[in-house]
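Quick start: load a record and inspect it. Here is TLP18.3/Psb32/MOLO-1 phosphatase superfamily protein:
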Amino acid sequence: MAEKLFSTADRKAIVNAIQSAEVSTSGEIQVHIESRCKGEVLERAVKVFDTLKMHQTKDRNGVLFYLAVVDKRFAILGDKGINEVVPEDFWENIKEHMTGLFKQGQFTQGLIDGIHQAGEQLATHFPYQGDADINELPDEISFGS
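Running the structure step on this input writes:
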């Protein structure tokens, strides 16, 4: 179910949004989509964050967009480095914007907008480091069960 929600073109647009956001930052953004979320959504997002090794970025500036499509639940999880510098309500504001689009069935656009908003903050606090900056995590969407 999770993999069927987004067409090939949708997936490409989401990956392009990740790559576009990461051009200006040393931060890393990943999207993980699964059908169901067992337990609390934030706890599941933390487990996925760990499984994807997002905590291993040099500056601890990874951001995970986690979606459980059947359960209609999602979370945005930033690592320690980014959470120390963004406003306290930052993730909640992005979630509210995305929720509005999700309720209209605009899942791809919701993700793209959220990725761009996160990327803007990452670029402000973790600017691109030139040749020293490497892509530490894959840009492709990961899928769970």
